[in-house]
Structure formats: structure tokens, C-alpha cells
Design brief:
One of its GO terms (molecular function) is RNA binding. Its EC number is 2.1.1.176. It comes from Alkalihalobacillus alcalophilus ATCC 27647 = CGMCC 1.3604. It catalyses: cytidine(967) in 16S rRNA + S-adenosyl-L-methionine = 5-methylcytidine(967) in 16S rRNA + S-adenosyl-L-homocysteine + H(+). With about 450 residues, the chain is an alpha/beta fold. It folds into 4 domains: about 5-130, N-utilizing Substance Protein B Homolog, Chain A (Orthogonal Bundle); about 140-175, no CATH class; about 180-235, Alpha-Beta Plaits, CATH 3.30.70; about 240-445, 3-Layer(aba) Sandwich (Rossmann fold), CATH 3.40.50. The protein is built from 20 helices and 13 strands. The strands form 2 sheets. Strands 5, 6, 7, 8, 9, 10, 11, 12 and 13 form a 9-stranded mixed beta sheet that branches. Strands 2-3-1-4 form a 4-stranded antiparallel beta sheet, with helices on one face. A hairpin with a 2-residue loop joins strand 11 (about 425) and strand 12. The longest helix is centred in the middle third of the chain and has 23 residues, at about 150-175. Bound molecules: S-adenosylmethionine.
Length: about 450
Amino acid sequence: MSKNVREVALQVLIQIEKEQAYSNLLLNQTINSGEVEKRDIGLLTELVYGTVQRKLTLTFFLTPFVKKGLESLEPWVKTLLQMSVYQLVYLERVPERAVIHEAVTIAKKRGHDGTASLVNGILRSVQREGVPSFEKVTNQTKRLAFEYSFPKWMVRRWLATYGEEETREMMKVSLKPPVVSLRVNQLKTNQEDLMKILKEEGVLTRKGELSSDALIVEEGNAFKTNAYRSGLFTAQDESSMLVAKALGPKAGEHILDSCAAPGGKSTHIAELMNNEGSLLSVDLHEHKVQLIREQAKRLDLSMIEVVAADVRAFSQKTPAQSFDAILLDAPCSGLGVIRRKPDIKWAKKESDIQDIAEIQAMILEAVAPLLKKGGRLVYSTCTIDQEENEAIVEHFIQTHPEFQWDITLSDRLPEEIVQSKRYKDGYVTILPHDYETDGFFIASLKKK
Ligand SMILES: C[S@@+](CC[C@H](N)C(=O)[O-])C[C@H]1O[C@@H](n2cnc3c(N)ncnc32)[C@H](O)[C@@H]1O
């Protein structure tokens, strides 16, 4: 039997908080379990994403109404209040009376009469008096953090790197619902044909902005189609599609994808190589490389060979200069994909940046000797933090005279990116608001 959608949403939110689980994974699991009616899936998604995304703003709104402070409440009560205020402030189509009534019913069921009356009192006060204004917060970092619901350390770093206007735009776009984009498998179809095929299966799409390989889903579930099962496309963000292009793989070459799972870029590389030559895709664990195998099979890409290994150890056992090109799509803090994974805002700490930057530098150091003279090495991340991006590649170039910036990168990226102020000879940062895609960093280095 299906359950009350708000109760399920609260349960998912509690689990995200407790287990630091990813909201997209948990939400998909819940939807697939059939716990809520089909017609409630939209509301469930909105409640979960909205509450996670706006957590700090919702805390700011609630603070004046909880005398002893929000932290004095049981965690589930705090989450219930946040979810309810989210509805009061942001979901105009839901009547306020219904929001409060549902919250009180859940509070009574999960707690006792006292909890119900506390929740009732707080929400009625919010309804009567309205939420506080951001204007009162005079400190710039704090105000932006509350207004757009980002941790203060992130706001401070972005302000220092990008200034107020860009930071504000970046945070604003991260609060929008994410888009689903598809990469056309050019070995089997093309953009126009795939649009028609998907339409016949009830999925409406439009062409992407940046890539001739991209379709954006406007309506329907593209992953429950025959087109998906028969390998006509792969789920991939548009900026992510630029990475394999930046590598410029050619049929017949020997390529290493050194951090490859779940295989989004490996499969793209194989498609660009017409499935001819060799592509070795390495990732840490067997269960991770299995994901690459599954995608390669679905897309009919037989050239991909997978290896489960720490690429640092793998490179020590591999002869130097084995590959024509290497992709290092490094593990990173993921600050460019907050729109799709809002939990990243709360799960990451500032100290994580330095820790992950050390690993990125180590992996780059380890794979560099495997590149042939004259070969290309692309370093990419889905973060927009300079410590994980420019700082890594600039230090690498300074300490490795055998490498230089690959200025031919401009030939392999779309004109509008090459013309943008963020393009430098050899690398580019794409911010989430530039083209409403994930934030990405792509650098190309050449071995002399
Ligand atoms: C950003 S993800 C790669 C995404 C992938 N390129 C794609 O497009 O689907 C980074 C990957 O690096 C892997 N990784 C982290 N440290 C590694 C190491 N030392 N050796 C190999 N893989 C590593 C992680 O397991 C993770 O799957």
C-alpha cells in the first residue's frame, strides 16, 4: 500500500542526514520501491531536493521562532519543520493550512501530543509573522550563505576567486531543478534521429547548447525506453561531454582512462575512436569497473578493457610511454555538480579540498610517465575550486619541464568556450551558470 508522501519525504530526508546518503540515489530507490503513488513522485522529489538544497535558508527562517534554538530539537523534528517551512515559502500551490495540518499529524504519529503542539505553534507563528529578511544580515558572506543556502566556507572561497556577481549567479543556478541530458551514441544514430525515436517512445527532447552530441530531456523517462536498452545514448552532462572531445582520441590509438568509473567518458572516448584501437579503463574496485563493463556492453563498445586497480600502483607495473593519450578525470570535491547533488554542500568540509588535492597531484604524477612523447594528457574535474584545478596543473607544468600546455585544445572545444573569458591557452573552467551545465575544469598538457 502506498504511504503518505510527506511522511516518506521526511523519512528520506532523515536518512540522508543520518547516513550522509546521496539524495538522488535514495530518492530513486524510494521511487522504484513504489512506496508513493505515481502522481506524488513530483511532490516527493520537490520536497526532498528543496529541503536539502535550502537547508541553511530554512534554518535561518526558523531560528527566530524556536526559543531554545533549533539544535535543541530532536533531529527529525528539525527536519520536519524545515520541510514544512520549505512548502510554506516556496510551494505556492500547496495550501498553508494543509502543510501545517500534515506536519502536525506526522509529529503526533512519530512523537507525542507535546511534539505535535510544538510543531503546530512554530509553524503557525511562521505563517502569522512571516519569515525574517536577509537584509538584516550585514556580513556579505553570511548574507549570501543564508540567502542561497551554502556553507559559509564555500561562499568565502568563491567570493575570493570569482567575486560577488559570479558567486551569486553560481549559487542561484545551483538551486534550480537539474536537467537530464543525453549523449547521442554517434556510432548508432544521430541527434535528429534520436529525437524522433525517443518521441515515438513518449520522451520529448531538445538539442543541447554546447555539444552536437547532446539532447536535453523535456518530458518522460528516457531510461525506460528501448532506445536506451539498445545503446543509442548515455546519460551525461553537457560539460562532461567536452572532456573526451578535449582528449581528441583517434581510431587506432592506445589510450588510458586512469579514473574511469562509472564509464561516462570511457564510453565516449570509444565512440569517438569508432571502437578501433585500444582503451584501458582503470578504476579502484571491481564493483566500479563492472559498471564500465555494463555500459560498454549496452553500447556495443567491445574495445574497452577494464582493470580494477589503484592507478598509482598500476602505473608502476606498466612500461613508460605506453599510451598516445591519457585522461585523468580526477576524484574531486564535486563542487561543480551541487545542482544535481545538493548534499555535497553539507557533506564536504573545507579541509577535504586540501586532502583531495594531494591525491589529485599524486595520481597526475603517477600517470605522466606512461604517456608517449608528443602525447596528450587531459586533466579534468567536476569542481570549480582552484586548489583542485589550476593549482594542480600549474604546479605540475612548473615541475615537469618535459610537459607544456597543449594550445591545440582550442581546436577541440566549441567556439563559444574558446572565446569566453575563462578560456586560457591549455585550460578552461566552466561555471554552472555559464551554460546551465555542471561546473567543470578541463586542462590539456602535451609531452614534448
Ligand atoms: C570523477 S570520477 C570518474 C568519472 C568517470 N571518468 C566518468 O566519466 O564516468 C573519479 C573516479 O576516480 C576513481 N579513483 C579515485 N582514486 C583512484 C585511484 N587511485 N586509482 C584509480 N581510480 C581512482 C574513483 O573510484 C572514481 O570512480
